[in-house]
Specification:
Bound molecules: ligand CA2
Order of helices and strands: EHHEHEHEEH
Largest sheet: 5 strands, parallel
Distance between the termini: 28 Å
CATH class: Alpha Beta
CATH superfamily: Dehydroquinase, class II
Number of helices: 5
Number of strands: 5
Strand order of the largest sheet: 2-1-3-4-5
Structural class: alpha/beta
Radius of gyration: 15 Å
Helix content: 25-40%
Oligomer: single chain
Number of domains: 1
């Protein structure tokens, strides 16, 4: 039997779905921008979609930049197939997330509920987008399902 080298991560069928700051408030405020679904609703919808696609999802949310960086590293260490990342406001500020995305060698698809390019000027720049393999934005919760289809097909 040929074993895997110590530096060789084994690819799994798991797709990490990482959500950044304040997304835990979804469904409670600003429904005109973000809709009425909660993050738990999105997770349930995406779990069904994952089942249809024959992949597993690991769905998480954090309000802390460093935790998101740690989870990107964990995706590499555990051999995740891909990552859907809605980094929320850190999208527009975080060189740390960009550096992590570039370092891990796991394809990242940037996801947004709204379309930041149609909103305030400060949301037009995306550090995440500079390292991402693709993006889905402006389709609300359905965008997560579209991004999952893309990730599963990679
Ligand atoms: O459209 C998206 O998905 C965003 O990533 C959402 C972020 C925003 O900073 C990005 O520019 C675009 C904000 C998430 C905050 O979510 C809330 C949900 C309910 C109430 C208040 C904030």
């Amino acid at each position: 039997m040929i074993g895997l080298g110590t530096n060789t991560a084994r690819m799994t069928d798991t797709i990490f779905v990482l959500n950044g700051p304040n997304l835990n408030l979804l469904g409670t405020r600003e429904p005109e921008i973000y809709g009425t679904d909660t993050l738990a609703d999105i997770e349930a919808m995406l779990s069904e979609k994952a089942h249809e696609l024959g992949v597993a999802i690991d769905f998480r949310q954090s309000n802390h930049e460093g935790v998101l960086v740690d989870w990107l590293h964990e995706a590499r260490e555990t051999g995740a197939k891909a990552i859907l990342l809605n980094a929320a406001a850190y999208t527009h500020t975080s060189i740390a997330l960009l550096d992590a995305i570039k370092a891990i060698g796991v394809p990242v698809i940037e996801v947004h509920l709204s379309d930041p390019s149609m909103r305030e000027e400060f949301r037009h720049k995306s550090f995440v987008g500079m390292g991402a393999a693709g993006e889905v934005k402006g389709f609300g919760p359905r965008g997560y399902a579209v991004a999952l289809e893309k990730a599963a097909a990679l």
